[in-house]
Structures are given as structure tokens and as C-alpha cells.
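From the shared-data thread, chain only:
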Amino acid sequence: MEKLYAVLNKQVANLSIFFTKLHHYHWYVEGPHFYRLHEKFEELYDEINELYDEFAERLLMIGGKPLSTQKAYLEVTSLAEAAGVEDADVMVGHVLKDIEIMAIELKEALVIAQDLGDEVTVDLLITTLASFEKHIWMLSATLK
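Structure, as C-alpha cells:
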């Protein structure tokens, strides 16, 4: 179980850092695609906020202890914080890269949860992965 706790906690950290980055981008995006991206970043941070809570609560349900401080998140996250005021295309590229990283890690977590027979966690991971794969497709198309 410790291995599952660790991979789920990494996602709690990733989701927290990503949530903050999306807010930053939502506030600072500029340019001809401002309106569309401003709305998209808000849509994403709303989804990420829900997932952040779901992953932390799942950890609690299975006996784990979710990380809950920025310091702890920054120690285990796979993602980088927003660097400053990037242009809109760079922002989209960073969001895409972050979702791709989390998708890879979700697949790794999925194997662990399946090996433990934890079908509820498996369902959470598959549902999240399906959403992330759609975002990857859409964000990739945006950058073409």
C-alpha cells in the first residue's frame, strides 16, 4: 500500500501546483486568444480542483495521509511552477506538458492499483486519464 500512497500523493502535489499555475495563466494570459484561453484555463482549474480533492480523499479512505502543504507539494511534484508572465502559446505548451507528465504517472499508478485489486482507485485513475487524454488532444491541436 505504501507504493500506492506515494503515487497518489505525488498526484495530490501535482494537482495543487497545476491548480495554482492555471490560476496564474488565467489571470495573466494576453493576446488575440485571450478570451478563449482565459475561459479554458478557468475550466481546467475547476476540473483540477475537483480532482485534487478526490485524490486526497481517496488517500484518506484507503488509510493514507495526503500531503497538505505547499512545501510538501514542491518537494514531490513532477511539475514546475509558472515562471512569470509567459506568452499565450508558451502557457498552452506548459499546460500540455504538465498534463502529459501527469498522464504518464497516472498510468504508472494504475498498474499499482490494479495489482492491489483496488478497483475504486483504478476507476478514479482511468476516469482522470480519459479526461487528460482529451485535454492533450485538444491542447496539441491548439498549438498546430
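The domain at 2-142 is CATH 1.20.1260.10 (Ferritin).
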